[in-house]
């Protein structure tokens, strides 16, 4: 049991970090072990959870929370229950170091392009899924509102899309694929500073393949008062999940 007396007061700002958690759409089974799980299966599941934590913008807040309330189970802030136990045994200095890092997080530790973000989990092998998603020809299959895409010179890609009011727009963008990091990044010249990235994280465990797909988007053009941009990202990751799991199973 967590130490309830240590829980922060129910003030929104104290818990706000959870709104940005990379694991919000991840199956809790990745972070908490099933009964009697031991050995390689436990190590594989812990490693998968840590890979999600590694790209989480609130990893320090989460780890600090778990230490403060002495969460007895699960991976929190990239730390297993055993690792947290060891940190707590190291004494208050470990907690103070973690708290200080949380308060003084440098700019470069901020999440990439944090303006808009959406994430989902997919029952698919990460390498095969990334190969599918990074193929330019497949972009219209999952990018909301994109109707066509084809490669140009170098890292250029030409896209066609339909706006919410039905207007057809065409444009050129740069499109970089980092196969080692399983990350796609794209953007276009001109006003709006439009940039985005998509990352596939391997969260497969001993019981089967699994991937987390996270999409970030930055633009200064749209204040998104009506949620259009965030809605588009949510639709994109939902399309990835549906497309891959229902129509193009990748294992
Ligand atoms: S650090 Fe890990 S467990 Fe904590 S919120 Fe982020 S992804 Fe979830």
UniProtKB/TrEMBL annotation:
It holds the Pfam family Whib. Binds 1 [4Fe-4S] cluster per subunit. Following nitrosylation of the [4Fe-4S] cluster binds 1 [4Fe-8(NO)] cluster per subunit. Residues 149-168 are annotated as: Disordered. Keywords: 4Fe-4S, Cytoplasm, Disulfide bond, DNA-binding, Iron, Iron-sulfur, Metal-binding, Transcription, Transcription regulation. Its cofactor is [4Fe-4S] cluster. It comes from the Bacteria. Its main location: cytoplasm. Residues 153-168 have a biased composition (Basic and acidic residues). It is found in: Cytoplasm. [4Fe-4S] cluster binds at residues 23, 53, 56, 62. The keyword Metal-binding applies. Upon Fe-S cluster removal intramolecular disulfide bonds are formed. The Fe-S cluster can be nitrosylated by nitric oxide (NO). Residues 22-86 form the 4Fe-4S Wbl-type domain. InterPro entries: 4FE4S_WBL, Polyketide_cyclase/dehydratase, START-like_dom_sf, Whib. Acts as a transcriptional regulator. Probably redox-responsive. The apo- but not holo-form probably binds DNA. Belongs to the WhiB family. PANTHER family: TRANSCRIPTIONAL REGULATOR WHID, TRANSCRIPTIONAL REGULATOR WHID-RELATED. This is Transcriptional regulator WhiB. It comes from Pseudonocardia tropica. The gene is whiB.
């Amino acid at each position: 049991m967590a130490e309830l007396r240590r829980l922060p007061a129910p003030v929104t700002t104290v818990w706000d970090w959870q709104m940005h958690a990379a694991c919000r759409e991840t199956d809790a089974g990745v972070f908490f072990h099933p009964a009697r799980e031991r050995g390689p299966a436990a190590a594989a599941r812990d490693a998968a959870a840590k890979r999600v934590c590694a790209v989480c913008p609130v990893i320090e807040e989460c780890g600090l929370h778990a230490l403060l309330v002495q969460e007895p189970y699960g991976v929190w802030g990239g730390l297993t229950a055993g690792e947290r136990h060891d940190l707590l045994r190291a004494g208050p200095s470990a907690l103070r170091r973690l708290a200080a890092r949380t308060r003084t997080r440098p700019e470069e530790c901020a999440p990439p392009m944090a303006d808009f973000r959406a994430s989902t989990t997919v029952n698919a092998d990460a390498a095969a899924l990334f190969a599918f998603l990074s193929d330019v020809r497949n972009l219209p299959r999952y990018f909301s509102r994109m109707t066509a895409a084809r490669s140009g010179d170098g890292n250029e890609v030409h896209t066609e899309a339909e706006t919410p009011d039905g207007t057809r727009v065409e444009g050129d963008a740069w499109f970089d694929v980092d196969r080692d990091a399983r990350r796609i990044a794209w953007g276009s010249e001109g006003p709006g500073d439009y940039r985005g990235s998509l990352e596939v994280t391997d969260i497969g465990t001993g019981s089967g393949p699994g991937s987390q797909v996270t999409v970030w988007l930055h633009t200064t053009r749209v204040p998104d008062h009506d949620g259009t941009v965030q809605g588009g990202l949510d639709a994109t990751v939902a399309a990835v999940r549906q497309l891959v799991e229902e129509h193009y199973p990748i294992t």
